[in-house]
């Protein structure tokens, strides 16, 4: 309609602006995402070329499967008891249908248009990552951020970590096409640093996945021996890391205790608690504790009460014990003298390990959870294990039809109550595994449709050997293991946005 009144390409320009809005909104603002999605839909209706739309839709198997998967949410309301919850769930997933529907109906005309949209996305990720780091270090703003996961100022730290890795892939694509090389190298270097610094394990894993996809992309058909050797080495290293993470030292407490000294160099008695294991040293955290000396030494150097709380709200004395254990120090005056001013500040900030920064800190934190599993509350990995147990139990009982669109949270709540779960009320969440979520919601048929959708998308991007599309798919598939990726607005729009950009090859 507007093409006749204004300019021949008015609707296409508006379509491009809508996609640019999503590219900006993904790392920056949910409001921008909503406005851009509605703008895309409005432009589709104003153009009103419905004959062309239907032709494009019916010839695209990825979109048709996506349509079937979306309609399953309505079908699932039939046997759902919580219709309001189900309708709200469908409303959150509207972009799952709208963005690919518009993108299929009005395909991008040139690869340069798609590149422009992707580079806009990268610029916004770059800018927001810089803001995140500057805010964390209080260079800008006046926020005092203790937890690294709260460094993400514009949304979920997990979703943002995936955006960062996808931006890295986009810029690597620029490098192999020999475009904006200097800017690309700087951007990749910064974003890789950010991925390690932010301590988001999902981002680190996504980066590894992207690396392997790139490796296969370059070497699969040409240098398979290099690929095989490198892959084998990586598998061996992964097995070693996993073994180390889950290895629990076997300690005969009676024998171990008999070998410990009973007094400090000052002649004060030690307390030896051998229950908790240090992830850094694999020794008991509570060996060689002299509370008298620790309390005295701490009070002389810090304004934080020894029996009070650190900045994270943890018992400061326990933070101090764990921190010194990570350095393999005795918890007495002599051991305390080895702590630097930086160490004291770390302890006051609530850091329980000498390794406070980067992904290594997150890995040690994860190992601490595994070695000392008792109460899952407050431990992300242990909580996820509880979620997975609950999800698999529910799936087993509802394998063929599922429980319906609206009953997911209610069914989980019933499970936690019936099993007398250790999880606190605030921690009784859904599966955090989207494969299980789809299976228990829609049953076997829904899970097959969901997997088939991704298989068709893989065929599309693999046929054209589209590196960005391939990396996006595998990052998405891995993210489903530990996250309900398509249960949030950003997750749904991220999925829809990249599906739309690569749902069909561009004919130039």
* Total number of helices: 23
Shape: globular
Low-confidence stretches: none
Tell me the number of strands.
Answer: 2
Question: Residue-averaged pLDDT, rounded?
Answer: 88
Q: Characterize the biggest β-sheet.
A: 2 strands, antiparallel
How do the strands of the widest beta sheet line up side by side? 1-2
What class do helices, strands and sheet pairing give? Answer: mainly alpha
The helical percent reads 55-70%
- Report the span from N to C terminus: 25 Å
Rg to the nearest angstrom?
A: 26 Å
Report the β-strand fraction as a percent range. Answer: under 5%
Element pattern in H and E: HHHHHHHHHHHHHEEHHHHHHHHHH
Labels describing this entry:
two-stranded antiparallel sheet, 508 residues, 23 helices, mainly alpha, 66% helix
Question: What's a concise summary of this model?
Answer:
This protein is mostly helical. Helix content is 66%, strand content 3%. The protein has 23 helices and two strands.
Report on the structure:
By secondary structure, the chain is an all-alpha fold. The chain has a domain at 253-356. Helix content is 66%, strand content 3%. The chain is built from 23 helices and two strands. It has helices spanning 2-5, 10-28, 30-47, 50-58, 61-75, 83-92, 94-105, 111-136, 157-176, 181-197, 201-219, 224-246, 253-258, 291-301, 316-326, 333-336, 341-348, 358-371, 380-397, 408-418, 434-463, 467-482, 489-502; strands spanning 271-277, 284-289. It has a two-stranded antiparallel sheet. α2 packs parallel to α8. The longest helix has 30 residues, at 434-463. The protein is globular, with a radius of gyration of 26 Å.
């Amino acid at each position: 309609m507007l093409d006749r009144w204004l300019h021949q390409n008015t609707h296409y320009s508006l379509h491009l602006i809508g996609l640019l809005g999503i590219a900006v909104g993904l790392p920056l603002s949910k409001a921008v995402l909503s406005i851009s999605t509605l703008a895309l839909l409005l432009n589709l209706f104003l153009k009103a070329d419905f004959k062309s739309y239907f032709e494009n839709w019916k010839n695209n198997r990825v979109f048709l499967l996506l349509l079937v998967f979306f309609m399953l949410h309505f079908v699932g309301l039939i046997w759902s008891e919580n219709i309001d919850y189900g309708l709200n769930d469908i409303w959150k997933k509207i972009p799952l249908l709208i963005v690919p529907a518009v993108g299929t109906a009005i395909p991008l005309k040139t690869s340069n248009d798609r590149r422009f949209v992707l580079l806009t996305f990268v610029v916004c990720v770059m800018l927001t990552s810089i803001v995140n780091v500057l805010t964390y270090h209080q260079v800008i703003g006046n926020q005092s951020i203790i937890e690294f996961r709260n460094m993400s100022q514009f949304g979920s730290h997990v979703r943002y970590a995936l955006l960062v890795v996808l931006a890295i892939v986009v810029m690597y694509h620029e490098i192999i096409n020999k475009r904006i090389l200097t800017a690309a190298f700087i951007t990749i270097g910064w974003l890789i640093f950010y991925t390690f610094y932010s301590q988001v394990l999902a981002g680190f894993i996504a980066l590894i996945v992207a690396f392997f996809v790139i490796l296969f992309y370059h070497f699969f058909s040409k240098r398979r021996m290099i690929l095989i050797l490198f892959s084998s080495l990586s598998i061996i290293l992964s097995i070693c890391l996993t073994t180390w993470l889950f290895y629990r030292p076997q300690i005969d407490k009676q024998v171990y205790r008999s070998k410990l000294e009973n007094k400090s160099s000052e002649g004060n008695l030690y307390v030896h608690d051998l229950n908790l294991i240090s992830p850094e040293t694999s020794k008991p955290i509570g060996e060689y504790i002299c509370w008298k000396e620790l309390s005295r030494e701490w009070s002389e150097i810090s304004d934080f009460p020894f029996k009070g709380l650190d900045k994270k709200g943890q018992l400061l004395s326990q933070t101090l014990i764990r921190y010194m254990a990570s350095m393999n120090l005795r918890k007495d005056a002599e051991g305390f003298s080895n702590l630097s001013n930086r160490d004291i500040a770390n302890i006051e900030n609530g850091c329980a390990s000498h390794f406070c920064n980067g992904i290594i800190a997150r890995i040690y934190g994860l190992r601490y959870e595994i070695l000392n599993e008792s109460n899952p509350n407050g431990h992300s990995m242990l909580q996820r294990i509880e979620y997975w147990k609950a999800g698999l139990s529910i799936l087993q009982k509802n394998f063929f039809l599922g429980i319906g669109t609206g009953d997911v949270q209610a069914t989980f709540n019933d499970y936690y109550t019936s099993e007398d779960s250790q999880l606190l009320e605030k921690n009784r969440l859904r599966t955090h595994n989207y494969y299980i979520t789809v299976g228990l919601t829609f049953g076997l048929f829904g899970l097959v449709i969901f997997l088939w959708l991704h298989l068709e998308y893989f065929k599309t991007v693999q046929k054209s050997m589209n590196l960005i599309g391939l990396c996006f798919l595998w990052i998405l598939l891995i993210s489903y293991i530990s996250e309900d990726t398509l249960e949030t607005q950003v997750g749904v729009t991220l999925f829809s946005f990249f599906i739309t950009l690569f749902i069909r090859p561009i004919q130039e």
